[in-house]
């Protein structure tokens, strides 16, 4: 939640609740189908209630069959999300930039998208359809699936793990719907600039692990220094001033509340 508060302070158009990062930070586990609907909808509710920007939330595979998908969409919508992302992986799903992913038949995912669109109660609650077919079945199959998911009613398309800028350009040429670019540093897809992404047809870019990678590396350096030196004295890693952290977390509001309600 520290990362959400910090990201929200920069005025981004939207925030993204990543499955990888949420499972890692909340449960300390890999994004491999271990987190449940209950785990994730609780995080959606907590994040959406705190964020000023609209929250796009990873809904994995919908956590089961068609009835589960409908329940997930209604739950995420009620929890305050502005959009839900659903993917066509088999259960248990895996992070989109790791090996071993398998996808369900295209027709099964088409039914999921139709159910998701029918289940929402607000017209402005968006359904993002993600396909993970590129890695195991190739780009042509991924594009065929994206077209089918668009036909099923998806508002935004997410073709996961293209492996070159040329593949990304082909994706951009393939549809009139808004596209998601998943920018994972060290992943399967090249990280492009905003101008490059816009030029090839992408309307939305997510950077789901940028802050997590930066923070984890800084923590590793800090803990190594503490272990080696027995103190934080002399630590070279930049630290946020403690006063800035207390302000970010809302302590000033707590102190003002205490002043207003102090005993005479």
TrEMBL record:
Q: Which Pfam families match?
A: PEP_mutase
Concerning Gene3D superfamilies, the annotation shows: Phosphoenolpyruvate-binding domains
Stated name of the protein: Carboxyvinyl-carboxyphosphonate phosphorylmutase
Picking any one GO molecular function of the record gives: oxo-acid-lyase activity
Q: Entry's InterPro entries?
A: ICL/PEPM (IPR039556), Pyrv/PenolPyrv_kinase-like_dom (IPR015813), Pyrv_kinase-like_dom_sf (IPR040442)
């Amino acid at each position: 939640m520290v990362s959400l508060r910090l990201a929200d302070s920069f005025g981004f158009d939207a925030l993204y609740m990543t499955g990888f990062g949420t499972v890692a930070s909340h449960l300390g586990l890999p994004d491999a189908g271990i987190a449940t609907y209950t785990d994730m909808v609780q995080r959606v509710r907590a994040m959406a209630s705190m964020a000023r920007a609209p929250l796009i939330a990873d809904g994995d595979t919908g956590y089961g069959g068609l009835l589960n998908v409908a329940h997930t969409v209604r739950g995420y919508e009620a929890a305050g999300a502005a959009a839900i992302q659903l993917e066509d992986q088999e259960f248990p799903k895996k992070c989109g930039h790791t090996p071993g992913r398998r996808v369900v038949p295209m027709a099964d995912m088409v039914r999921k998208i139709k159910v998701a669109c029918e289940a929402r109660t607000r017209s402005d609650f968006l359904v993002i359809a993600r396909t993970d077919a590129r890695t195991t079945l190739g780009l042509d199959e991924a594009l065929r699936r994206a077209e089918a998911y668009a036909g099923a009613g998806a508002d935004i398309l997410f073709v996961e793990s293209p492996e070159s800028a040329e593949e990304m350009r082909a994706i951009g040429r393939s549809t009139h719907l808004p596209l998601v670019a998943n920018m994972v540093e060290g992943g399967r897809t090249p990280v492009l600039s905003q101008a490059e992404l816009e030029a090839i047809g992408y309307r939305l870019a997510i950077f789901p692990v940028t802050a997590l990678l930066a923070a984890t590396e800084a923590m590793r350096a800090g803990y190594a220094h503490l272990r080696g030196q027995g103190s934080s004295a002399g630590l070279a890693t930049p630290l946020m001033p403690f006063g800035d952290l207390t302000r970010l977390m809302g302590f000033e509001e707590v102190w003002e509340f205490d002043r207003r309600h102090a005993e005479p």
